[in-house]
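Appendix B, record 7
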Amino acid sequence: DNVIDEADSDDDDDDKQDAIFKETDLIFVVARADQDEPKFELFIFDDPLDNMYVHHDANVAAYPLCSTWLSDGQLSMLAVGTMLPFIEIWPLDVMDAVEPAVLLGGCVNSDDNYKRKKPKKSSLKPNSHSDAVLSLDWNTNAQHILASGSADGTIKLWDLNTQDTIGTYKEGCNIQALQFHHSEESLLLSGGFDGNVLIRDCRQPNATAIRWNVSEVVERVEWCFHSQSIVASTSSGLIGCFEARMNAPTPVWHLQAHDAETTFSLSRHLPGLMATGGKDGFVTLWDVRDQAVQQLTPEVAQQLRQPQSASENQRVPTQIVSKNHKTGSVLGLRFHPNTPSVVGACGSKGEPLVYTITEDVKKFFHVPHQKYIPQQ
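Structure tokens (predicted):
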């Protein structure tokens, strides 16, 4: 019995140690799109030991479609959008949470949110989305503001202090992608099923948005950290970079990264480094500083809405490496915000990937050795 008690005590000690975050831990969250048990999982990657495990998880209301991490340096929250018309906000600091701390939108009677697959519009709060939430982004400069895009064709701005909307923009199509500017809190970038990429100044809700059209469903949009440009990827695998300030219709550069739906991420620590992931299962790294002149094909020119005569001086970034990490179709991909050498990805096979890129990019970029760089 004493041996068993000691073994149980050792197991408890190991569990307690696993629950404690260390400075060298890389922490990330993935949404698991399991029809029977949709959930989010908070993973720990122990870099020195090259070990990855689930720290804790929680079930969400329905099939998860998007998420964004909210943190003010003290509290950590996760906003999750699902097939239902409301947003769940979960406290990530609580290991055994059984329900979200906050619901944005949804039914007037909160109990009705979980009674049917899709609540009736008549039962929803006036400020609620009326269809699935497809995209979310947290404003890091105004930390009480969250943006959401929906299959109901609207973008909503939420005040987390009041748990109510402070603005609604009607776009008329599914809003697939959103991102606030990293330093100018009022600028919001979005992309939709109609192929439009838009920049809005949220201080001027009635002003005309700056827009580009890429002819295909927009999968992801990002502001460049080190220039006044924006980047968008499409359902055909095309990625285009546009000058935001000048509203120039011709892309700064373009790229046929993959053959179908494509996501991407721009490095904030290594200017010019971009990672892409596609339905083909490959994760590819690019140097967008080093661009070769290449003539656009008629198909790509049409997608970018460019006349073929303008294609002579189009530029294409340089591919560094492309690898299949056996994740299945790559559904999400991000550079770690505080660790320059790490890319995280998840795919259709359900297992997350932590990809250390140092060796693969060393001929193109100097990757700092620091394991942790405080986020600006």
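Remarks on this record: The helical segments are 2-19, 298-303, 358-361. Residues 2-19 form the longest helix (18 residues).
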